[in-house]
Amino acid sequence: MLSTNTLQQFQTPCYIYDTELLARTLQAIRSELKAHDNYHVHYAIKANSNPQILQQIAAAGLGADCVSGGEIRAALAAGFPAKEIAFAGVGKADWEIQLALESGIGMFNVESFEELEVINQFATSMNLRARVSFRINPDVAAHTHSHITTGRAEDKFGIAKEDMLRAIRTAQQMPHIEFTGLHFHIGSQILDMKDFRQLCLCINDLQSNILDTAGIFAPNINVGGGLGIDYEEPNEHPVPDFKAYFDTFKQHLQLRDGQQLHFELGRAVVAQMGSLLTRVLYVKHGHQKQFVIVDAGMTELIRPALYGAVHQICNLSGEARMRAAADPHAEDKTMPVCEYDVVGPICESSDVFAKDIALPETFRGDFLVIRSAGAYGETMASQYNCRALPTAHFINKQP
Ligand code: LLP
To answer: Tell me, what's the pLDDT at 27?
Structure first.
């Protein structure tokens, strides 16, 4: 961990990214992929699009999953090969479709008949062949927060299973469209492998009962992302269990000969390598509660406010004082632990990072870290209240 002296150099609030942990995570993914040569991982850029992080992930040989023209540009600039880019999203704008076609991306994940029509029009006018997979809504519920579950029939994403065959047949009749496969994504922060098993069973059913019967071969099956991480004990599980994840698909998904399997992992790749560093502005002693008011807020990390997400919070300065007090020569051995609400400065009552948590007695100027903030932290930051966007710093850089 960072010493409190080292921390003085950082202007808070800011993100601190651990390059070495990212390298270890990527290595863990790569070694799993070695065992499965038809598996491909596309990193979901939306989780963290910091250019240095993207470069490190591209250099490790992963592809990219993009959901906007901006993300396609970021992916290309970081060195992801265009052919390894998948482009998803329910609302692709005309310029984004054109950019994707000009760049020669690997595949569109198409979410409606209306979108297919527009892609076909642009591909025809540019005299290109667009590679198209269909995102199918599998109607599988993921056991996660309702804001991040995406594969139920009532969700806005994808084409209904009943319409899949019609979509493929329509695409096959379009000379400027090449049908490349099927895409699914059931949600995010999924820790129960049974949810992924359910997805596999749904895909098996679609393949046996619809595609095989119609004599259609889908060259690619893309199962999306969603693998969760341990927010409560990040030190226990700094690298997610990729083996259990990939093995679930190996065991339950029946691929046809020559079929390629694609994954779009975001959170699992970058969450644990990032922390939000913040300083205590005030410790406010209320009648019922004590508030630690920090200089970071929901503008830097919106997950607790938006999803009730739990992130571990450590008072690095307080922990350093505790270590000093544990020294046999220390004079002051009284180091109380207190209960606090940790809150930000934004004018919203949801601007709360944690309620009733135990921290070493906390003082103005202390450094706190909010852990597991590498995914959907910096990318979801806003300038609400005219605040500046957070900066990012890298530690444990590789030689
Ligand atoms: N593929 C598609 C089509 C997606 O919609 C997503 C995430 C992913 C892949 C990557 O999922 P991951 O592996 O990161 O779970 N802001 C929320 C998460 C939103 C996820 C949106 N889609 C949060 O902070 O929890």
So the answer is: 98
Q: Is the CB of 264 under 6 A from ligand 1?
A: yes
DSSP assignment string, 50-68: -HHHHHHHHHTT-EEEESS
Q: What pLDDT score was predicted for residue 150? A: 62
Nearest CA to ligand 1 atom 19: 148
Contacts of 383 (CB under 8 A, 6+ apart): 299, 389
Q: Which parts of the chain have pLDDT scores under 70?
A: 1, 142-155, 333, 399
- Whether residue 267 has its Cβ less than 6 Å from ligand 1: yes
Q: Which residues pair with 108 in a beta bridge?
A: 87, 132
CA distance 246 to 232: 23
pLDDT (0 to 100) of residue 7: 87
Ligand 1 centroid distance, CA of 350 (Å): 22
What was the pLDDT predicted at 218? 98
| Paired residues of 359 in beta bridges | 338
Q: First and final CA of the chain: distance in angstroms?
A: 19
- Number of residues assigned to the chain: 399
Residue 253: CB within 6 Å of ligand 1?
no
Pocket probe for ligand 1: among 267, 276, 372, the residue whose CB has the most ligand atoms within 8 Å is 267
Phi/psi region, residue 376 (left: phi>0; alpha: psi -120 to 50; beta: rest), is left
- Decide whether any atom of ligand 1 lies within 6 Å of the 293 Cβ: no
pLDDT at 303: 98
